[in-house]
Amino acid sequence: RCHALTVLDDHSRYALGVRACGNERSETVQTELIELFRRYGLPLTMLMDNGAPWGTGDWRNRYTALVVWLLRLGIEVTHGRPYHPETQGKDERFHRTLSEELLSRAEFENLLMMQLGFDGFRFTYNHERPHEALGLTVPAKRYLVSERIYPERLPPIDYPSSMTVRCVSEGWISYKGRAYRVNKAFSGYRLGLSHTDQDGVLDLFFCRHRIGQINVAISN
Questions:
Q1: CB within 8 Å of 132: residues ≥ 6 apart
Q2: Under DSSP, is residue 144 helix (H, G, I), strand (E, B) or coil?
Q3: Please, what is the average pLDDT of the chain?
Q4: Taking Cα atoms as reference points, which of 50, 203, 2 lies closest to residue 216?
Q5: SS3 state at 93
Q6: What is the pLDDT of residue 52?
Q7: Which of 60-64, 91-95, 172-176 has the highest mean pLDDT?
Q8: Long-range contacts of 195-198 (CB under 8 A, 24+ apart)
Q9: 32 and 21 in contact (C-beta within 8 Å)?
C-alpha cells in the first residue's frame, strides 16, 4: 500500500514533494521532510490535517512527536478544522488533480514505480501545467526557495529570565507543589511558564511557541 506524502507551497502552489511512503509512521515522514528541508529550506508555517502522524484526535494531547520536532525547528504549526477539509482546500484540489491525471490512469506494481509516476506528475505540475489561480502561469515561476537553512544541529532551548522553567515528565509538570497535565509529546523537554494578565493563569511556551495554558489558581 502507498501512502502519499504531499507538501505544497501555499503561495505559489509549487509541489515541493510528492513522496510514495510505505507507512504513515512519524520516522518515515520526518526522513522525507528532512530531505525537502535540506533542498528547499524551512517554511515559516505548516498547515496539516489531524490524522497520524500530524495529530492525535485528543485535544489534551493534540501535539505529536513529529509536530514537536517541527516546533523545535522554529516552524509554526496549525491544524485544519476537524471534519472541514476545505481548511486545506489547495491541498485537496492538488490531490484531486493527482488522482485525475495520474492515479486513475495507471496502475503501479510497487512503491518505486509509484514514485517514478509521482516524479513525472510533479514535474509536469510545477513546470508545464498552467495554473488558473496563478494567471495561467506555472508554479515554478512563482516559487522562491526559503532562506531559512535547515540546521543539522539544533541549538539548546533557552527561555527568558522572566519565565519559570519546568521539565515535562510523562506529560506532567510541577509548579508550586502541584502537578499539572500538559501534552505527552513534550516529555523530556523543558517548558517556559509566563504570567498572563489573568490572575492565576500561566502561558506555556515550548521554545518561542505558545502551546497552551495552566490555571494555577485551582487545584487539579
A1: none
A2: coil
A3: 91
A4: 203
A5: helix
A6: 82
A7: 172-176
A8: none
A9: yes
| CB-CB contact of 3 with 25 (8 Å) | no
CA atoms within 13 A on the CB side of 11: 10
- What span, in angstroms and rounded, lies between the C-alpha atoms of 63 and 184? 8
Instruction: Enumerate residues 6+ apart whose C-beta is below 8 A from 156.
Output: none
As separate numbers, helices (DSSP H) first and strands (DSSP E) second, the chain gives: 4, 10
Query: In this predicted model, what pLDDT tens digit does every residue of 60-74 receive, in sequence order?
Result: 567 899 999 999 999
3-state SS class at 203: strand
Q: What is the pLDDT of residue 106?
A: 84
Q: Are 165 and 191 in contact (CB under 8 A)?
A: yes
**Strands 178-181 and 172-175, sheet pairing:** antiparallel
Pairing of strands 45-48, 76-79: parallel
Q: Which of 143, 141, 96, 142 is nearest to 121 (CA)?
A: 96
pLDDT at 22 over 80: yes
Instruction: Give residue 79's pLDDT.
Output: 82
In terms of residues, how long is the chain? 220
Most confident of 71-85, 95-109, 159-173, 206-220: 159-173
Instruction: Give the integer Cα–Cα distance in Å for 9 and 96.
Output: 16
